[in-house]
Design brief:
The protein contains five helices and two strands. The chain is globular, with a radius of gyration of 21 Å. It has a two-stranded antiparallel sheet with strand order 1-2.
Amino acid sequence: MIVLAGAGFAVLAVLVINPLSAKAKEPTRAQRIEQGRHIVHQVAMCVDCHSPRGPGGVFIEDRHLTGAKLDFAATVPMPWASVAPPLAGLPPGWTEEEMIVFLETGQRPLSLPPTLPPMPQLRFSQEEAMATAAYLASLHPAE
């Protein structure tokens, strides 16, 4: 009984003395970029609209996320984007912090007009937004 109480006190003392040891470690930049790659390519599927395709609709491998003409439109009259802008290296003039805010809130920087359909209104968690922005910033922009 005394041994258990002593062990329990030792664990409690470690948590009180060093509360950070009980928290998960902050992901590294490389881990964040890998999480962002997964979100962009497998979850949010950003590549579907923001990457050009070649003959037969196949992605042009070295042009992922460099922007693309949208070959589809709404079936009813409405405002509609005909081009998906480049995301590789972040859109021109955007900072990583602005991209994080956009992914969390849908608010574009510099008082730009709201996004048009088919772009959805985004509401990423802070962790998802930070990972996605880190991944996009890590890519080479289109030349």
